[in-house]
Design brief:
Low-confidence stretches of chain A: none
Number of strands of chain A: 2
Strand content of chain A: 5-15%
Largest sheet of chain A: 2 strands, antiparallel
Order of helices and strands of chain A: HHHHEEHH
Structural class of chain A: mainly alpha
Shape of chain A: globular
Mean pLDDT of chain A: 87
Distance between the termini of chain A: 22 Å
Helix content of chain A: 55-70%
Strand order of the largest sheet of chain A: 1-2
Oligomer: homodimer
Radius of gyration of chain A: 18 Å
Chain lengths: 145, 145
Amino acid sequence: MDLANDELLKLDNEVGFALYACSKGLIRKYNPVLERLGLTYTSYLAMLALWEQDGISVSELGKKLYLDSGTLTPLLKKMEKQGLLQRRRDREDERIVLIALTPKGRDLQAKTERTVSALNNTLRLLRESSLFSDLKRLLGELYEI
Amino acid sequence: MDLANDELLKLDNEVGFALYACSKGLIRKYNPVLERLGLTYTSYLAMLALWEQDGISVSELGKKLYLDSGTLTPLLKKMEKQGLLQRRRDREDERIVLIALTPKGRDLQAKTERTVSALNNTLRLLRESSLFSDLKRLLGELYEI
DNA sequence: TGCTATTCTATTGTACACAATTATTTTGTG
DNA sequence: CACAAAATAATTGTGTACAATAGAATAGCA
């Protein structure tokens, strides 16, 4: 697909728009389901990261999720209020805030697994297609441009 | 890729996360460039849609962009203030608000074409790969699930 | 040891998104 | 025609995103 000048600015030719609309569409599917768990899509992603690796710092979590402190600080405070995790300064280095799941936060994993399995089934085909690996490759490339 | 239960909730296996992170990453690349045009990513998309088809209603624009009035109304008011477009009620049907580009809005197209061409080149490979058509297909499927 | 640069989190300000609700207008039907 | 239903924007409330800045703590170095 090599575009002439007058085709360059068409909405349907925008890779970014396809990504943007797909991403929002999927989040719209997830959010009502996650609501039953008391989670939003963003807090769901944060929990996924923490279930994999508990006790990490805000900046480490930010690297995993590609989010900065401007997003994470209020999000984590809200999740702390919900009783899912605790935040505390590292004693060795007072600049760092470490995140630790509470028992309630850990226990949520099993219920979440059951709850999202329906969505996961819907997305199974996507995960099995080459689209998924292409996306992950794209994500890597985006951060090198 | 058929996932065992303990793999199901891993962040790296989330199709949604790959989409979400890719989309935000790309918008982060676009926004500083678009700023030179006085546009944000969202208003850029709105202008793309309007350059293709001027004089449409808010709801028609919403269908093109997959956005609702809660997002579009304040966005369009801001763009009207910038002098890019005008909003006026349809005389035939007072429920409808029609959007019309101003000369300034139309003139922005040429400059935008030049400005985003660098970004477009970076993304040329993506547009030429199967990823792009896969994404558009996914977008269609998402709205049927 | 001081001093400077760096690291890390928090804050501020701007800009979306979207569900739910409201208000207005039009349409369709008995 | 009257009135219920539908269509259309606007509003409200909540939840992100992120650039830019600030502020505290640490590291590195003359």
